[in-house]
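Journal club prep, shared notes

We agreed each person brings one worked example of a sequence with its structure written out as tokens. Mine is Aminotransferase class I/classII large domain-containing protein. I'm keeping it raw so we can talk through how to read the token line rather than staring at a rendered picture. Sequence first:
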Amino acid sequence: MNSKNNIFPLDSDFLKKCLNDWEVDLTHVSIRELNRLVDELSAHFEVEFLRFEFGVPGLPPNKIGPEEEIRILQHNPRIPSIYPPFDGIPRLKVAAANFIKKFLDIDVPPKSCIPTVGAMHSGFICQAIAGRKCPESNTILYLDPGFPVNKLQTKFLGLQEKSIDLFDYRGDALINKIEEIFSTNKIGGLLWSSPNNPTWVCLKESELEGIGNLLTKYDVLGIEDAAYFGMDYRQDYSQPGVPPFIPTIARYTDNYFLTISSSKIFSYAGQRIAMTVISPKLMEKRYKNLRKYFDTERIGHAFVHGGIYPTTAGVPQTPQHALAALLEAASNGEYNFLDEVKVYSQLASKIKIIFQKYDFNLVYDEDMGEPISDGFYFTISRKGMTGAELLFQMLRFGMAGIPLSTTGSTKEGIRICVSIIRDSQLDEMEDRLSALNHQLQPNPV
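Then the structure, token by token:
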């Protein structure tokens, strides 16, 4: 790694000029803006940055997916000229329903399993339906911190948003707070991820049961983002059809959308495909106000013909076959995808230790009394510093992360993503953190 440690800290005036020229405020910086800034700094100073800001897979995809796409194209060269079904190819729908049974122990028909062009596409349509099913309930409630782009979608759709910070509310306190907000009758949808991006907090079965009861009681639609499906390695969820099964809201209510991304669990981010599972009862549920936006009152029809059709008109077919092959192999026990991506958990454990060694603290450090799991992300802070201030200093030492202020958190700190950090970079990371720690002392010598 070309570290050129002698150039650290990088010139603060140049960094300030870049921020000023691009009108970037580190308190509100987007991931893409930060990517561009880091690229500029890396090129200008000819130094490789440690990229903790990228929430992207760091592993190549298993050959099952790409080989299936190639096989399908060779077998049927006309596929690129044929429009895909709006609601997905039958093979994928069957594979998804079986996968849900094997890993969640939830029964859904293939009809309830609908592919989208990535999880962001799914979230967009789910929010559009949840926020428009009734005129008075046009607000999406977030269990924060969360993925910043979800809230951009909320704004794009002209919906309102409200937030609960999981730092302050867990267990019964979380359920009580959700009910307090639901009781206003202004909430159309509740959106969360578990494991959580950026904290890796995982909701417990008791919390999901309480949330499910409230979704049913107040007729709110739950939007469960399972981008990191089963990646809480404190339990072994890797064996299909064998307990323990992955916790899910689908066990406790019929008012749910469940989104499973292929990006992280299968390292298939570039092919932009995810699966949305809609409760069979919710598929048939009707709301008069939906007709104004989707030309139908029925949820399932609104999702496919009012959501997918006018946005992407379907998902490309070869990625659908690839995802089907991956789901089939996982369900049959031929492909242990959770074992394959466990490397992120192992890497996070090592990186956390190094940060803590140099006086950085974990912000979200507990999961209802037990240590937070090791996974794709964790959160760090420095006493007496805002997230933006800490990010500025990290940049000067060749490191980047996402300020928690952009995620809906009420706490100061930085999201650290471990996915593209290599074991070979850990010594260099320790050198830079040691130097940064020295720089942040009251009277560095």
